[in-house]
Amino acid sequence: MKIDFNAYRQSLKSMDTEEHIDLAFYRPIGYCWAVLAASLGITPNVITIASIFIGVGAGIAFYFDNIWINVVGMLLLVWANSFDSADGQLARMTHQYSRIGRILDGLSGDFWFASIYIAICLRENVTSAFFSEHPWLIWSVAAVSGLCHAKQAAMADYYRQFHLYFLKGEDGSELDSTTQLRRKLASLSWTRDFWKKITLFFYTNYTANQEVMTPAMQALRRELSARFPDGRVPQAFRDDFRKLSLPLMKFTNILSFNWRTIALFASLFARMPWLYFAFELIVLNGLLVYMTRRHEAMCRKLTNDLENGKYSPVGLG
Q1: How many CB atoms lie within 10 A of CB 274?
Q2: What is the pTM of this model?
Q3: Which residues of 187-224 are buried (b: 16+ CB within 10 A; e: fewer)?
Q4: What is the pLDDT at residue 18?
C-alpha cells in the first residue's frame, strides 16, 4: 500500500505528543489500517470494538505457562494496539469525532489490561508455590496495580490534551471541563437519552477525577478564562507553555502503552509475570508523582506570570 505522507502526517495528533515507538511502528501500520477502513466504509468505533476483542484474546493467552502461546498473545496485543492507533487516525482523516468514540477508545485499553491482570492472577495461583499458598495476595496486588494503571493513563492523557489545546487550539484537542459536561448532563433526559446520559455521567466523573489531581492546572485555566474570555490566548503565552510542557510529554508517553507492554513482555519471557505489577507499582507510580509535581509547578509559574501582567490580550500588546 502506497502511503501519502502528507495525509499520514495529518492523521497524527502532533509531533510534540507522539512517542518514538509509535512513530516508527504503530502509526504507519495504523495509517494503513485507517486507509483500508475508509475505503470499506468502516467507522472508527467499529475498529475500536474490534481491538477490544483482540486485546482480551491476548490476555487469555497470557494465562498459559507456555512461552509460545504467550508470544501469540503478545502478537495479538500488538495487533490490538495497531487498531487503537488506527481508530484515532481514521477519525482525524474522516473528521468522525465523537465523545462516545473517545470514551470507547479509553475503555478498550481497560478491557485489555483487565483480562491481562486476571490471567496473570489465575496463572500465578496455579504455577507459583508462594502465590498458590497465598492466593489473596496476587489478587490484592493486581487490584491496586489496576487502580494505579487507571490513574496513570488518565493523567497522561489529560496532560497530553492540555498540551494539544495550546498547540493546536480547541479543535485540535479533546480537553473538557466538568462545568461544561455537567451542564450538558443536566440537559439530557433519563427517559429519552438514557444511554447518552449514563455514558456522559461516567465520563464527567472521569474528568472530575482528573481535575481533582491538578489544582494548579485548574487555577491556570480559571485565570486564562478570566483574562481572555474570548479564548484568544496570546501567542507568547502559547509559546511559553509549549516550551515548558514539551519536556514532560515523554513522561506521558512512558505512562501510556508501549513501555508498560515492554515490561509486561519481559516479565512473560522471564516466566515471572508478577514482575509486571512491581514495575507498575514502583516505576510507573514514581514517574506519575514526578510528572504531576513538575506539571503543577509549571502551571503555578504561568499563573503567576499572568497575574503579574506578563501577557497582554491579543491585539493590545
Answers
A1: 19
A2: 0.87
A3: ebeeeeeeeebebbeebbebbeebbebbebbbebbebb
A4: 85
